[in-house]
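[INFO] parsing input record for D-alanine--D-alanine ligase
[DEBUG] input buffer:
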Amino acid sequence: MALTTCSPAAYGRVAVLFGGDSAEREVSLRSGAAVLNALIQAGVDAFGFDTAERQITELIDEKVDRVLIMLHGRGGEDGSMQGALQQLKIPYTGSGVLGSALAMDKVHSKQIWQCLNIPTAKYEIAMKSRFEAGSCGAIMNKLGGKVMVKPAREGSSIGMAKVTSAKQLATAIEDAFKYDNTVLLEQYIEGPEFTVAVVQGQALPSIRMSTPHIFYDYSAKYQDNTTEYFCPSGLSDEDEQHLASLCALAFEALSATGWGRVDVMQDKQTGEFFLLEANTVPGMTEKSLVPKAAAAAGVSFTELVLAILATSME
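[DEBUG] output buffer:
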């Protein structure tokens, strides 16, 4: 796979934004450290910038030419940082304000996909301002008896739960309200989970995840060595091509650009794929999925980082 990169000098002085104060701070610090190390080893004039410890306006004093965003979650992946950088007239990697904001919001993502007939699981929405626990029985029936509860604007599976009863649903919703005033209630799809990275408009090979956990949660992603990753994922050539096209279309539908990742479930009965969510600043740690997919396509970690940085040149 051929990705566009530039000579190290062409990027100029680069700030890698990481850390921040979202619930995903620890993952962001690890992603940022890995990316920064790769840039320095490649000869790029790069330095780290923790937005929880420094004011964004200090980037002007640092005379940066561009920014590589490694901030996961709110404040870095939701459009707010992108808007601030645009006001400062500093080029940055990945999606713009609109794409970042839409992809960060699981509810709005699903509504857009639904309008475009892009397959996504059935869902309901719980709003903190008007949630009634008495509605949980009807919701469970409507969504098939097994439901995933997700804060609308969190990542890394933070605040998520799988429930199988109305009582569990009410408790999980209240727990999710600790992270967000809007909570997505999604029909649980029985079958394998896949993820597809999109870099510079190209879909990388899909990855299938397998975990002994109830679902692919925070621990399975970042802490547990029992999680297995399959790339190639075991799909037929036809299904692999279909999934790649579907994820590229879903990513573009949210006005997402540059690079990112789309998560998908496959119904084990019908074989149909259902979109879960898109990520515009996915993890880049040693356990992260985008580097695994890049390696399967013959792209090294350093090449991948340079290609991501190149998205700031557009």
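[INFO] The chain is about 35% helix and 20% strand.
[INFO] shutting down worker
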